[in-house]
Amino acid sequence: MSSGVKVSQECLEQFQSLKLGRKTKYIIYTLSPDNTEIVVSKTSDSSNYDDFLAELPPAECRYAIYDFEFQKGDEGKRNKICFFTWSPDESKVKQKMLYASSKEALRKALVGIATEIQGTDLSEVSYEAVLEKVMRSTF
């Protein structure tokens, strides 16, 4: 079910910048104050995963893109672009429903995502949890 929420052009531009330029490490997306559009809340070039986690509010939903870098055995470093849906247990039910019904519009607009991560608490989006999921999706 679609909510009718639109994806702002800046969302697409920032994603392309991350995907092609590899300068941006992560992008945090949120809904506009009137809940009609998905907009960029923050971008960062910090490679510290804890900095990224600190951007996920404990009681509000968000979407995020993270350029996840990891080591795969003797094959060296790899990168996977991960799409996060952050919907903490403490967030309001109405907000959770709006984010859930708007997710697909953003997800379809961002072409090139390797892995999707859904989190309701920090343990589900910890570095180790994401690494495990990324390794399973890597051949």
Automatic annotation (TrEMBL):
Give me the Gene Ontology terms describing cellular component.
actin cytoskeleton; nuclear matrix
Q: Which residues form the ADF-H domain?
A: 4-135
Q: Does the keyword Cell inner membrane apply?
A: no
Superkingdom per UniProt? Eukaryota
Give the organism's phylogenetic lineage.
Eukaryota, Fungi, Dikarya, Basidiomycota, Ustilaginomycotina
Please state what the protein is called: Cofilin
Q: Which PANTHER family match?
A: COFILIN-RELATED (PTHR11913)
Q: Which Gene3D superfamilies is this protein grouped with? A: Severin (3.40.20.10)
A GO molecular function term, named singly, is: actin binding
